[in-house]
Design goal:
Number of helices: 11
CATH topology of the largest domain: Rossmann fold
Structural class: alpha+beta
Strand content: 25-35%
CATH class of the largest domain: Alpha Beta
Helix content: 25-40%
Order of helices and strands: EEEEEHEEEEEHHHEHHEHHEEHEHEEEH
Amino acid sequence: MLIEFSVTNFLSFKDKNTFTMIASSDNTLKDNYVEINNEKILKMTAIYGANASGKTNLFKILVMVSSMIKHSNFFAPNVLLPIVSFKLDKETVNKPSEFEIKFLVDGIRYLYGFKADSKNVYEEYLTYYPNGRPVKIFARENIDNYSFNSSDEKFLNDLKKKNTSNKFFVATATNWNYEKTKPAFDFLTEKLGIVMSHEQVNNYSYNMYYNDKDKKLENFALNFLEKADFNIKGYKIIEEKMTEDKLRTIPDIVKSFIPVNTPMYKVNTKHIVNGDEYEFDISEESLGTQVIFSFIPVLKDVLDNGKVLIIDEFDKSLHPFIVKYIVEIFNDLEINKKGAQLIFNTHDTNLLDLELLRRDQIWFTEKNSEDGSTTIYPLDDFSVRKTENVEKGYLLGRYGAIPFLENNFDSLK
């Protein structure tokens, strides 16, 4: 489970900002968190803020960290890392960015962090807490100055020679079968599911539908669609091959990454009206139906395997009741049995209800009007009564994180 992460000097985040899934002392909505080793961890959070306030940038942090670590072993020594420091300050633009993430794997806490720019990883560290006390796995300073847990020092000293200035040692050590870095590497690269659009997961989801031999996904999907009031009674997935004709319809920017004969899928949905059966191509369904059909396999995978699902613009093309239903699934003890987590940003104010979400589950991003930097903070920072109408308070600007619009339209005429 994700506990918290911090970022300094990256994209729109200038100063250190920390986002946490640690529950406060609030004793309401106890189903909305799990308690592990005397610590309460939230199952989901919703992030609000004006357009261009930094909501998406918050997710780009985890996308970048996960991707860099996953592909680190394939980096040539001269490959530049996709790290972009805060550009609207002459001091920060040439300084490295800093990242830190805390998480749980099999009930054991881990702490991983690094400081880097596009050319070098200057600092990197991994600590775990097997008995509740911190134990250093490795620490790295000044690019190539390493220190290790004394019991594994000889082995790791050999491994550090295989690392380069732009590679992450957590990936190098795992690649050479070092067991103590593997849980952290696996969490950072496999347990974080970050979705920036439904198109991103289409082929992945259709592949899961197609290979659903035991029909468990089909049962989950049709049950979900029925409860969410979609008039879909079945579906058919047909495997096709990527051809030259289909390649011509794909934008050039991605065409080079898709070889001929790559499996593609045609999807038909089944509807029953007055006892008669009708089939539609998925493209004929509403955009909201297409979105939720693509997300269902992702939701099941996350719930079945206790992953962290992070979604940008979660409410896009979805009715507020559907979004609320998915939120309730993650907070349901009978469905979410493995501590899966959901983090998303949204403009859907219907969720700002303290009977649905706790005060520590509602977060805001706000852009500083003077230097353009982003700050993230929870509703819990405010003295909000449990009976307060949070939706109304947010729209009135009591918590910030909303756009301020001028009423003078003369300049637009």
